[in-house]
Each structure stands twice: as structure tokens, then as C-alpha cells.
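Chapter summary example.
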Amino acid sequence: MKKYNDLIKYKSAKKSILTLGTFDGVHLGHSEILKKLVSQAKKKNLESIVLTFFPHPRMVLQKDSDIKLLNTIEEKAELLEKVGIKNLIIHPFSQEFSRLTAEEFVKNILVDQLNIAKIIIGYDHRFGRNRTANIDDLIEFGKTYNFEVEQISAEEVNDITISSTKIRNALLDGDIELANNFLSYKYFLSGKVEKGSQIGRTINFPTANISVQEDYKLIPKEGVYIVSAIIDGENINGMMNIGNKPTVKGEKLSLEVHFFNFDKNLYDKNLTISFLKRIRDEQKFDSIDELKNQLEKDRDFSLNYFKNKGE
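The structure predicted for these 311 residues follows.
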């Protein structure tokens, strides 16, 4: 898949079929639309394009917005590539861009820049300055500029909205298994391993401290989770604590993973952690020994989970 971080960088004489949206999570609700896009692109010999924007429009137009996203840009690209999308355009969203009229957006971008033959879009999609144009306007533009418009049904659009909301709520509630069902893959986050306090090493529970650079990435509810990661091509199982480490008077949110049967230096490595199940809330213990005892129980529970799953 080719990835472009600006509309003007896309160049192709070949006609395209395009859909646009946030596609956050690239979850089950999106799958039919993306399959349709890929299938029609092959059948009609068109370039398949997903057009999305970053920052998220709400981050720009609503300055007080604290929206958290299921995917970083890199994660979204990885998921869309797996679906079979050939071109991903992530255009910088700005106040200036938001002031394009509907016809400027259609003529200058969709037609002249992206050379579209067809667009697949939600029945309720609104676009152009102040979001004044709707699907009917787009169909009229299609007649003027010779491209086809296919509407995504209300049912499909609702599926996307409902799924996205349920996924976010499930993650914030710590219900990883429900979130994973809606995603159709394991929720994951990526970050660099940084040096921590190293207290875990003193009680035989060394941890990798994961630093997630993107502050807009949704972090699941605080607590202890069963997780896995691919390290040097090998699947490694473990457990992660998300929280402030109250037993050792931690002052900020940290993400610490203890990997089972693993003893390699991970500092400065970028790891992707997949969430499988939440075990419990984060707790404050009266002593380090009590913390160690609980971690041993968490480890036993986790190993039993993998044993039952045959992993």
C-alpha cells in the first residue's frame, strides 16, 4: 500500500474509486465498505483510495475536544493495508481546509487531484464549508463532473457509529473481550521501551515500561491485563499493569509489561502490545511482599489462561 501525507502528493493517471472518513479502529462496522471498495477497484481496474484526515477534524474545530482515537496513524495504515487498500491519503486537516466550498472540494480535490470515477460515501455525509452540502449535492456534482456516487446505507452507517461507540466504552470499562469482538482483532498499542524505576526486578517481576508517544491514543481502563507481543518474530505472552503504581507511590500513569519466560534487553525497542483479557483493578498494597504475592497469583491466572487457549 502507498501512503501519502498530503493530497497533492498523490499522482495517478488511472481513475480511482474512493471512500473517505476517519476509519478509526478499522473495525467490523467498516469491513463491508472496505471490501466493496477493494472488490470494485479490482473489477473495474481502478485505484482504491481511502482519504482520511489528521488531526481529527474535532481536534481542530473544537479546541476543547479531548477525543481519544482507537488507532494512531501508523496503526490505521497497517490495518487498511491488511484489508487490501492500495492508497491511503492522510491529509492535514486545518481551518483553511475546512473553509473549502463543496464545489471546490469536489472539483479541485476529488476530480482534478484524485481523478475519481466513483465515490462510496455515507447517506448522511455532509461536506464543504460549514458542512452545508449533502449526498444529494454530491450526486449532482457527480453528474456535472462525470463520476458515480454509491451511498452507504443507514444500516451500515449506524453499524459503524454504534460499533465505534461500543468499542470505546468497552475499552474505558476494561471490557477487552467485548472490544475485541467488535474490532474482529485484538486491541493493541505501540510504544518504545523506556527505563523505569526497576523495582520489578527486585521481586523477580522485571517489566518493560512502554511509552506511547501519541497522546490521542485511547488507553484502556487502569488495571492488570493479560497481553501478548511479537518480539524478534516470536510471540511472547505476558501481563500488563496500567496505572499509577500506588504501592510504590507512582506519580504518573505508566504501562508496564512483565513477559513470561523471557529475559532479553528491550530498552529502546518499539513494541506492539495486544490486549487479551482484564484480570483486575489496580490495587494499593501495604507492602512490597503483598504486591509480589498478588503478582504471583496474576501470573498463575495468566499462564492458566494461555494453557486453556492452547497458546
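To summarize the output: The two ends are 31 Å apart (CA to CA).
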